[in-house]
Amino acid sequence: MDLFATLQREQKGTPFQRSEEMRFFLTYSGVLLNYPSLVRFAKATQPFDVIRANILIRSLHNKAEIEEEFIRVLKEARKKQEENPISIAVAKTYEFSKRLPYLAEGNRKIYVPLLSRSINEIYDRNLSKLLDDNYKLLLTTFNPLIIDTFDVYGSQIYNSFFTKLILVAEDEKIQAFYDYDSFSLYFVNKQGRLENQICLFDKGIARRNTNHMVERLLPVANAYLRFNKKEMIYWLVENKLISSTIINKISTKETNLYKKMEKHARE
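Above: the chain's sequence. Below: its structure in token form.
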């Protein structure tokens, strides 16, 4: 009996369906239908997939807001016959952008992770390039420029202001994130794909305690990263994140399965 699948199936109800993330998705997911490579994300149902979709939606929103603010300020500065209207528009839009979600990479801010790092340099501090003929495509039909966000930016995209996920632990291959809305610990590889998830607070937990979650999850995540399943289960039960009842249930079924296999092998 698979531990991860069983915990997902036996998890109590979570606040995710009523969360800000889900409301945001339900309100804006339609925008993804305008881009062939993003349509599949509009069909998200599971919490992690909704989180991924929202990263893309926020990326689209950032792009539109930065462009609109830059053009608005530029037109206003030109109308007032300001000296160096482009510089004024760049400076004011840069200040405006500070309130938007982004992924930090050193001194660089990635505001539009739907696009490559080189193009994101334009949206960070080189907005004047949007006026060049070579880059005007960005303002209209930019479908051909859309990249695989999660492949290019990897697991770090989840450790950004595009999500509310909390980084719990990591090694050179995996990062473990906790989501307070879905009560889940997500293990994401460097290619930005979900490797495994632990759904917490199964039906055997009489009363959920969500205090100090990161501290309670840290030994769980570290055990997973060391491929130590027994230690991981110990800390899940010890820290009252899952019930001993469900572990006993899984163990009993596994034991019975092994007995059947041994019996069959002897016959």
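The longest strand covers residues 174-179.
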